[in-house]
Design a protein that fits this description.
Blueprint (H helix, E strand, L loop, with lengths): L4 H12 L3 E2 L4 E2 L6 E6 L4 E8 L7 H13 L6 E9 L3 H23 L1
Parallel strand pairs: 4-5
Antiparallel strand pairs: 1-2, 3-4
Helix pairs in contact: 1-2
Protein backbone atom coordinates (compact mmCIF):
# COMPACT_ATOMS: atom_id res chain seq x y z
CA UNK A 1 0.00 0.00 0.00
CA UNK A 2 1.37 3.41 -0.99
CA UNK A 3 0.88 6.16 1.54
CA UNK A 4 0.75 9.89 0.84
CA UNK A 5 3.48 11.08 3.21
CA UNK A 6 2.91 14.78 2.61
CA UNK A 7 -0.80 14.40 3.41
CA UNK A 8 0.03 12.53 6.62
CA UNK A 9 2.52 15.25 7.64
CA UNK A 10 -0.11 17.96 7.10
CA UNK A 11 -2.76 16.01 9.01
CA UNK A 12 -0.32 15.47 11.90
CA UNK A 13 0.51 19.19 11.89
CA UNK A 14 -3.20 20.04 12.10
CA UNK A 15 -3.76 17.62 14.99
CA UNK A 16 -0.72 19.05 16.80
CA UNK A 17 -2.26 22.53 16.58
CA UNK A 18 -4.65 21.29 19.27
CA UNK A 19 -1.78 20.40 21.62
CA UNK A 20 -1.12 23.40 23.85
CA UNK A 21 1.84 24.28 26.01
CA UNK A 22 -0.11 24.88 29.22
CA UNK A 23 2.57 27.13 30.71
CA UNK A 24 2.69 29.49 27.72
CA UNK A 25 -0.82 29.09 26.30
CA UNK A 26 0.29 28.57 22.69
CA UNK A 27 -0.11 25.47 20.56
CA UNK A 28 3.09 23.56 19.80
CA UNK A 29 2.95 24.14 16.03
CA UNK A 30 2.37 27.90 15.96
CA UNK A 31 4.75 28.34 18.90
CA UNK A 32 7.51 26.71 16.85
CA UNK A 33 8.08 23.81 19.23
CA UNK A 34 7.44 21.23 16.49
CA UNK A 35 10.67 21.51 14.49
CA UNK A 36 10.16 18.58 12.12
CA UNK A 37 7.74 15.84 11.08
CA UNK A 38 9.03 12.94 9.01
CA UNK A 39 7.10 9.93 7.73
CA UNK A 40 8.70 6.85 6.16
CA UNK A 41 7.13 4.48 3.61
CA UNK A 42 5.74 2.21 6.33
CA UNK A 43 3.96 4.98 8.24
CA UNK A 44 6.56 5.39 10.99
CA UNK A 45 6.68 9.00 12.16
CA UNK A 46 9.53 10.95 13.72
CA UNK A 47 8.66 14.30 15.29
CA UNK A 48 11.34 16.75 16.39
CA UNK A 49 10.22 18.66 19.49
CA UNK A 50 11.96 21.70 20.95
CA UNK A 51 11.56 22.60 24.62
CA UNK A 52 12.22 25.93 26.30
CA UNK A 53 14.51 24.33 28.89
CA UNK A 54 16.07 20.93 29.62
CA UNK A 55 14.40 21.18 33.03
CA UNK A 56 10.88 21.53 31.63
CA UNK A 57 8.57 20.04 34.27
CA UNK A 58 6.00 18.91 31.69
CA UNK A 59 8.34 17.23 29.20
CA UNK A 60 6.69 13.82 29.49
CA UNK A 61 3.19 15.31 29.26
CA UNK A 62 4.11 17.15 26.07
CA UNK A 63 5.75 14.07 24.52
CA UNK A 64 2.74 11.89 25.38
CA UNK A 65 0.33 14.51 23.99
CA UNK A 66 2.29 14.78 20.73
CA UNK A 67 2.44 10.99 20.34
CA UNK A 68 -1.26 10.62 21.09
CA UNK A 69 -2.29 13.32 18.60
CA UNK A 70 -0.07 11.94 15.81
CA UNK A 71 -1.31 8.38 16.30
CA UNK A 72 -4.87 9.47 15.48
CA UNK A 73 -3.90 10.16 11.86
CA UNK A 74 -4.82 7.43 9.39
CA UNK A 75 -1.72 5.69 8.02
CA UNK A 76 0.46 6.33 11.08
CA UNK A 77 1.89 3.12 12.53
CA UNK A 78 4.45 4.28 15.12
CA UNK A 79 5.41 7.67 16.52
CA UNK A 80 8.81 8.61 17.89
CA UNK A 81 9.15 12.05 19.49
CA UNK A 82 12.72 13.29 19.84
CA UNK A 83 13.87 16.34 21.77
CA UNK A 84 15.90 18.31 19.22
CA UNK A 85 16.87 21.38 21.22
CA UNK A 86 16.14 23.89 23.93
CA UNK A 87 15.33 27.58 23.85
CA UNK A 88 12.72 30.03 22.64
CA UNK A 89 11.71 29.28 19.03
CA UNK A 90 11.66 32.32 16.69
CA UNK A 91 7.94 31.73 16.05
CA UNK A 92 7.22 32.08 19.78
CA UNK A 93 9.30 35.26 19.97
CA UNK A 94 7.13 36.80 17.23
CA UNK A 95 3.94 35.78 19.05
CA UNK A 96 5.25 37.24 22.33
CA UNK A 97 6.29 40.50 20.63
CA UNK A 98 2.84 40.84 19.06
CA UNK A 99 1.09 40.23 22.40
CA UNK A 100 3.43 42.76 24.06
CA UNK A 101 2.56 45.39 21.43
CA UNK A 102 -1.15 44.71 21.95
CA UNK A 103 -0.75 45.14 25.70
CA UNK A 104 1.12 48.42 25.22
CA UNK A 105 -1.60 49.72 22.90
CA UNK A 106 -4.26 48.95 25.51
CA UNK A 107 -2.22 50.69 28.21
CA UNK A 108 -1.71 53.75 26.01
CA UNK A 109 -5.45 53.90 25.30
CA UNK A 110 -6.20 53.72 29.03
CA UNK A 111 -3.77 56.55 29.71
CA UNK A 112 -5.47 58.74 27.13
CA UNK A 113 -8.90 58.33 28.75
Amino acid sequence: MVIDKSKIVEEIRERLRKVMDPEIGVNLVDGGFIRSIEVDDEGNVRIGLMLTTPYCPITYVLIASVEEAAKTVKGVKNVNVEIVGFGIPPELERIMEEKYREMLAVLEEEEET
